[in-house]
Design goal:
The protein has nine helices and 18 strands. With 362 residues, the protein is α/β, with parallel strands linked by helices. Mean pLDDT is 84; it is low at 23-45 and 259-273.
Length: 362
């Protein structure tokens, strides 16, 4: 009797082990090879955070400010933005404009763009107080570098990533000035908050002062960093006025005009040639190899196998679809990645293989 019970127990344990192995191998056919590093974004692209909208206000005409709360929200630094998953599934990027020291709380502001791609219209219509929202962890490509002085330039809703920078620069004891332009005072959010900084801030409503005077750029000490976020004409004017364009840091959420996103032409577009050849991609984590046609993007081919792969702009400037490249040569066609990042990663929405085959950390 004891022998029969032992045999039954061993057989049961073996059956459970086989089932567990099948499930594990189903999730990753290359198991038990060592796990790969976290993707270059710093977080798993599949990781979603959930937060509740605890406050919705209107700090200016056509602008809503949303305060989100959750104990799971990671820490962030001035200049960071988050990918917000709208109820329809659209993904849009919004700068964090609250206090980095407020644990578990994010603040974003969204301007309504009637002739845009639909994200802001949906946000204004459906993101109401009490609603739950999905977002991805913060990323920062507009980080504030330590300095003794700064010049900040913001246009309209471009004030959002600048606000936390002003607080950080003030706390650090740095000398700084802000030029803040907009169509009118009524359209410019956060004016009451900025009033506390006194004459460090120059408000430049276009209906009162015309186009902003960028003279402070030429009067700044050599090497003073310039941080600018706003409409493309403003950023172009800042680059043109700056004595040293290398110290100018820009934050974009639309492609720069004439850069040829996705075609590899124009300044800042990357190294792409514009030609589109078919190639294959091995998804290293899942062990599958897929074909990428000449008339489709790498992102489209990957999403056939992994439909939850995140993306947003599809034009090579937001960074949502950045992934690690483990093997193969990449034809980079984005406007975003640094030379160092291009050594081992790519943006799936616009970049392709310059060889016949790529291996991705997916």
């Amino acid at each position: 009797m004891r022998r029969a019970l032992t045999v039954t127990a061993v057989a049961g344990a073996a059956l459970l082990t086989r089932r567990a192995l099948r499930r594990r191998i189903g999730r990753s056919p290359l198991w038990p090879l060592p796990a790969l590093e976290t993707p270059v974004s710093g977080h798993s692209p599949r990781r979603l955070l959930r937060a509740r909208i605890v406050s919705r206000t209107e700090p200016a005409e056509g602008v809503v400010r949303l305060v989100l709360e959750s104990p799971d929200l990671p820490a962030w630094t001035p200049g960071a933005h988050v990918d917000v998953v709208l109820p329809s599934g659209l993904v849009r990027q919004y700068s964090l404009c609250g206090d980095p020291g407020a644990a578990g709380r994010y603040t974003i502001a969204i301007r309504l763009v009637e002739d845009g791609r639909g994200g802001s219209r949906e946000a204004h219509a459906r993101l109401v107080e009490g609603a739950e929202l999905e977002l991805r962890p913060p990323r920062n490509r507009f980080a504030l570098a330590p300095a003794t002085s700064y010049v900040f330039v913001a246009g309209g809703i471009g004030i959002t990533p600048i606000l936390p920078m002003l607080r950080a620069a003030t706390t650090a004891g740095a000398d700084w000035t802000l030029l803040y332009g907009g169509r009118s005072r009524a359209s410019m959010p956060f004016l009451p908050e900025l009033a506390a900084y006194g004459d460090r801030v120059t408000i430049l409503p276009e209906d009162e002062t015309g186009l902003p005077d960028l003279a402070p750029l030429t009067g700044a000490r050599p090497g003073t960093p310039v941080y600018c976020c706003g409409p493309e004409p403003l950023m172009a004017a800042v680059l043109a006025a700056a004595p040293d364009p290398s110290v100018v840091h820009l934050e974009r959420f639309t492609p720069a005009p004439g850069t040829g996103a996705g075609t590899g032409t124009g300044a800042g577009a990357g190294t792409g040639t514009g030609a589109a050849n078919p190639f294959t991609v091995t998804l290293r984590r899942t062990g599958r190899t897929i074909e990428v046609g000449a008339d489709e993007t790498t992102l489209a081919a990957v999403r056939r196998e992994l439909p939850n792969t995140p993306y947003s702009c599809q034009q090579g400037f937001c960074g949502t679809c950045q992934h690690r490249v483990l093997a193969g040569e990449v034809d980079h066609r984005d406007q975003l990645l640094t030379d160092a990042e291009r050594e081992d990663s790519m943006l799936l929405c616009v970049s392709r293989a310059s060889s016949d085959h790529l291996v991705l950390d997916l």
